[in-house]
């Protein structure tokens, strides 16, 4: 493998990944804005927005993941010199966005019974329900925007999403303030936390409209997206669903894994929750780089597969993997050596600092494995291999990581099926540290299995082009 070719591939990945990192950080900023601004209104508003987000974001990720099948499809067409056929694929993805978005909108606007079933705080339910009713109106525009964004990424152009996300962040903050506090001059009542839902819907509609302009007035016109109108073509939709549904389910499985771990930590007290949130936030920021590398790997691997150059596809995957492992290792060293100063930026509570710093030490391993699995998953999507990775995620997170974490956290008494068999190993509960070790175990299992699958796929003709598993 020539050093020059490795360097060239590294530069290409960097050009693609850098705008994605900025776009993802901007999107994280919108969530931070919701939490900070709702918390300044009242604890009830913050709780309501948080509860609303617990339903909204996982379901949104599920549908967005399905639409993300556009990226490898367009990448392969781009590599094959058939960009003009990409518009027909995106038009069918828009039917998926419309149908799935409307179904989710109806579901989320009737979520109140689910909150009562979970027994959440009665005071927070009206805010959560109002948030969902408003935010759900932006789902169809968001999914349509995602289809267009994936078209751009499939054509190796990640700058539009970055620019749009950067412009959407200050708009989100402004609209949050306007809808939360009201404006008599504009006839807008003060809505508190529910206003975050309305601002979310407006911002999602804004990003879609801007992306329509970009697609119609840029080099993406070559995709012929707006040259025709197509009714649903079920053969194309089926192909997109075969690739996209496992992507969406894998995202849902992973998000659910972390969400359930967070809910279990909620049983351990305020200090454990605060420590977990701080450590998880630090890990989440660092995770943006491997996430972006994974998305860039999807583009590069898909392009090379479309061009019929499997050796170049393997090079793209291995350069992305090597880069993400170097990043993960560097972040791990920083977490270990600077964990106390990092945690001190968030709080001055001595007990929270102690626990959060210990979690960051565990998070050093967490970060390496999380980085590896995210980038490997992205490379596999470039091969259109999505079913096996989804299965790996289910087993690693839900059948390995979560049971181990719960057993370490609470002791085997809370998991009767493990009683006896693992009594010696898990007999003494270690609280929040146990759940974080469970996260490490789950992510390690996923990273190792996904890496093994990538080795197999990259060495064979399986899962290339029209052959999928």
Could you characterize the architecture of this molecule?
79% of the residues lie in helices and 0% in strands. By secondary structure, the chain is mostly helical. α1 runs parallel beside α8 (159-181).
Q: Name the shape in a single word.
A: globular
Alpha carbon gyration radius: 22 Å
Oligomer: single chain
Number of helices: 17
Mean pLDDT: 83
- For the termini, the CA-CA separation is 29 Å
Overall helicity: over 70%
Percent range for β-strand residues: under 5%
Structural class of the secondary elements?
Answer: mainly alpha
- The succession of helices and strands, N to C, reads HHHHHHHHHHHHHHHHH
**Quick one: how many beta strands?**
0
Major pleated sheet: none
Uncertain spans: 413-427, 462-469
Report a brief summary of the structure.
This protein has 469 residues and is mostly helical.
Can you tag this structure with a few keywords?
79% helix; 469 residues; disordered C terminus; mainly alpha
Fold blueprint:
Blueprint: H1 3-41, H2 43-67, H3 70-79, H4 86-108, H5 112-118, H6 125-135, H7 139-154, H8 159-181, H9 194-216, H10 234-265, H11 270-306, H12 310-337, H13 339-344, H14 350-382, H15 387-410, H16 423-426, H17 432-459
Helix pairs in contact: 1-2, 1-8, 1-11, 1-12, 2-4, 2-6, 2-7, 2-10, 3-4, 3-7, 3-11, 4-7, 6-9, 7-9, 8-9, 10-15, 10-17, 11-12, 11-14, 12-14, 14-17, 15-17
